[in-house]
Amino acid sequence: MKYKDEKYEKAEKGSLKVLPKTVLLILLCGLSFYLGGLYYGKNIVQVSNVAKTGSSLDVDNSPQVKSVSFSECSSDYQDYTPCTDPRKWKKYGTHRLTFMERHCPPVFDRKQCLVPPPNGYKPPIRWPKSKNECWYRNVPYDWINKQKSNQHWLKKEGEKFIFPGGGTMFPNGVSAYVDLMQDLIPEMKDGTIRTAIDTGCGVASWGGDLLDRGILTVSLAPRDNHEAQVQFALERGIPAILGIISTQRLPFPSNSFDMAHCSRCLIPWTEFGGVYLLEIHRILRPGGFWVLSGPPVNYENRWKGWDTTVEEQRSNYEKLQDLLSSMCFKLYAKKDDIAVWQKSPDNMCYNKLSNDPDAYPPKCDDSLEPDSAWYTPLRPCVVVPSPKLKKTDLESTPKWPERLHSTPERISDVPGGNGGLFKRDNSKWKTRAKHYKKLLPAVGSDKIRNVMDMNTAYGGLAAALVDDPLWVMNVVSSYAANTLPVVFDRGLIGTYHDWCEAFSTYPRTYDLLHVDGLFTSENQRCEMKYVMLEMDRILRPNGYAIIRESSYFADTIASVAKELRWSCRKEKTESESESEKLLICQKKLWLLENKVTTTTIGSLSFFKSKKIFEESIEMKLSKTLSDYMMYLLIVQPSLMSTVAGIACEAIIASYKSVEEMNENAIEYSSKSVLFQACMLAK
């Protein structure tokens, strides 16, 4: 006690060595935490304590997770696509348009704010009316309207965009264009062709027309100067995803689609060793069709409008035909502007090519997994279908709708997969879907059109909802068992994805998200708050989430959802299991506030608004000052007394001025460790 009393007495007498360093340590810690807390502290949630305040279904052993809070992003981020962000394009090369591929931000650069809707946003027009019109303020992009209105992609009428069904190669309407295509490919009429992919989809009029003909299409387009092609498609209620054939494989397994389509999609098919066409070959089912309209098809009559010569276009067509032949495609039909090639339904053609050592492109060796498609580089080789697959070709696949419930051959490639498991899975999801409709009557109504099953196995939920006016994007984790081929074999669509990253879509594009144990399976890899932020980004205002999770995670998820401004309720599963719970959540519609009152005193600004700025100047300033103080503390301790004196005089003076002018100054100063430290030093 004597030692402590002596030390305190010396300090009171004004030691210039102990007190300034103590104060500056407080300054160092307080400056950053205070200014950060000033803007974020009001919305902090202590997730570790949520189990104590839940309903009767709550559990007491929720995971211990760091506190979370989410501010609102600025209006500049209303169309934010984290992994295809035009703000970052200049960082990447232009060769083969690699800058348009997925480039996700590192952890330290991730946005932790809620993406706002555009000003004037309205609930989307409901299906099927939405196929022909949408609200302008929901997708407020004028460039595509001005540039493509003469081709009848869309036109603005009052508060709406109208979609007449035109396109570059079918300006007078997509229906007549598809009628001609059906005449060339009778398999489009009898259920043989069920799944398709449209590369360079425009506003997805082709995919939209095929929906009426029983064909489910994935419309694919990059984020480019056409402004939100994929967002237009999804706003219309048509399946679409952001993507580009560049240097990496598309996120689909081999032998998936029954048909692929390119309508003047501007993809240089014969360049770079034909790797783009080789990728179409990989994802196309044996016996599947590739449809091309536009250059160089019908060059004899069209070349004058293409700013080229007839000789050049003839040469391009011959190169294309030779390349297709080398991949075992055969010209199936051709009329006017449409040409159709069919992929070989068996391996006889590939066996002949393998006997020629000089053949190009060569067959891919066994080191390259055919279904590997998550950040997998394109290679200039032909992926030959496995000879053990006897029923995967288009002719052997059951016709739609029989194929939906027929056991796919490729289920045997899934560890533990077999026909019995497949049938049990079907039955399980019929029961679950019936239970979901009781808990959420909007399922099956026109309120829900775009649905994502975020971690499906065999597409069971999509199959159970197939008769409802909706479609489902089935997502299979790139780290899970490879079940996506089974999904496609059933006549459904989907994609690979890693939920530690953002999905390839625009904000506000899905009406319903379904989760089945995702947080349990991925909790060691993916941080919950980022997954749920991504769910919030892609979910439409007033949209729903059905989250089926272990009781261990349910309370924590509910608390994070509250910070996302979702309303959630907890329900029992259809089996009333105690180990598993259901969260039925709805995202609320909110809009950015336009008015912000700012009072500036010296170098400090106080914002009187519910809007919390994610990256305010003050927070950046606090970081800079803290770093500089740390430098002085370590390298130049003799200067610290002077720095502390100057800093504290300015802070105390600022607070006194603010107290006179700002009614909230007492609230601010009372929470400030920095202010109290300066008063102590004074």
From TrEMBL:
Compartments, record wording: Endomembrane system; Membrane
Entry coiled-coil feature ranges: none
Cited InterPro entries: Put_SAM_MeTrfase, SAM-dependent_MTases_sf
Keyword S-adenosyl-L-methionine recorded: no
UniProt GO MF annotations: methyltransferase activity
Membrane-crossing residue ranges in chain numbering: 21-40
Gene Ontology BP terms: methylation
Gene Ontology cellular component terms for the protein in this record: cytoplasm; endomembrane system; membrane
SUPFAM superfamilies, per database record: S-adenosyl-L-methionine-dependent methyltransferases
Membrane topology per record: Single-pass type II membrane protein
Start-end of Basic and acidic residues biased regions: 392-412
Keyword Nucleotide-binding: no
Residue span of region Disordered: 392-417
Keywords assigned by UniProt, alphabetized: Glycoprotein, Membrane, Methyltransferase, Signal-anchor, Transferase, Transmembrane, Transmembrane helix
Superkingdom in the source lineage: Eukaryota
Enzyme Commission number(s) of this protein: 2.1.1.-
Similarity comment: Belongs to the methyltransferase superfamily.
Protein name: Methyltransferase
Gene (UniProt): BnaC01g40980D
